Amino acid sequence: MTADGCGAPAGGASAPATAGSQAVVEGKVVHQGAAVSTGYARLLGTGDEFVAEVPLGADGGFRFFAAPGSWTLRVLAPGGLRAERAVQADYGQVTTVEVAL
Amino acid sequence: MSRSDVLVDADWAEAHIGDPHVVIVEVDEDTSAYDKGHIPGAVKIDWKKDLQDPVRRDFVDKTGFEALLSERGISDDDTVLLYGGNNNWFAAYAYWYFRLYGHDKVLLLDGGRKKWELDSRELSTEVPERARTSYTATDQDRSLRALRDEVIDAIGKRNLVDVRSPDEFTGRLLAPAHLPQEQAQRAGHIPTARNVPWSKAANEDGTFRPDDELRSLYEGEAGLDFGKDTIAYCRIGERSAHTWFVLHELLGLPNVKNYDGSWTEYGSLVGVPIELGEAR
Q1: CATH code assigned to A23-100
Q2: How many domains does chain B divide into?
Q3: How many angstroms away from the CA of B155 is the closest CA of chain A?
Q4: Burial of B175 (0-12, 13-18, 19+ CB in 10 A)
Q5: Domain residue spans in chain A?
Q6: Of B94, B234, B251, B256, which residue is the catalytic one?
């Protein structure tokens, strides 16, 4: 993961996360028991306000460094597959979300 | 300039795979995406390694841009079709470079890599071999690029569009939520800037919203004065290149600049004014 880019880090959340002072939201996406390696995870705020988006990694993983608060996680994948989960982020914590499409 | 001159859809791209006069270029930060699979025949540009000066904080100069395009086998008279991940952030950033250095025949693929993937279109891992060219760029068109002194002078006079997320704009975060929170010394935004996150210009699949909706977004909801000159900024200048593309290329506003120094520069300057919270 690069720290000075605005854009996508290397896909997925393979590197171990230590929250430190950050509010981390991470997880994996599966479909019929297999990791979804092509797709996108979006973090949305109140009223569907876009916050961030990452491509899923080879293991179906994703990770966000959010502000503390309540968020909606939306996953998009080929074939019109999609899912949404409500998530809570807090400083110093890693919130883990598993998503089955 | 209108939408059809600068933006093409995936069907157009598919129809021009193998066209000797069209070079398809994927631009990403995470170039492992290209290695995993790309539009057949596409070459890659790494936004950092290829487009940034390796020592100074600046982007490649004219000579460097010429060397890059020559090495990638791109000629002055080729049509260049750019696409990439992150809803085309880096492809739009590269598009802005091509315009800065005088390459007129440049297009953006609507929806970029994301829509291509979500549509399950063909991806290839084969890396094309293109014969070296002798590319000649023009001097930078400075009418498209804002530097810091011009930005400070624009406070309260021109439209300043901060295209970061609301949390970055108000000062709750220093970086997008998928990156560690570091970089600029101070959080907040440039006084008098309007916050129009880049994402409001895009649909969920990464395509751009229709022109009438875009016009209403910037002129109506955000209250930009289209009669004034405009400077767009974000954190390092690529999300704002996406908005620059919308305002200058799609909507055809004449005087729109991208401030590529953006918040990582402005938020670390000594003595400049900063606002926190909502726009005033």
Answers
A1: 2.60.40.10
A2: 2
A3: 24
A4: buried
A5: 23-100
A6: B234
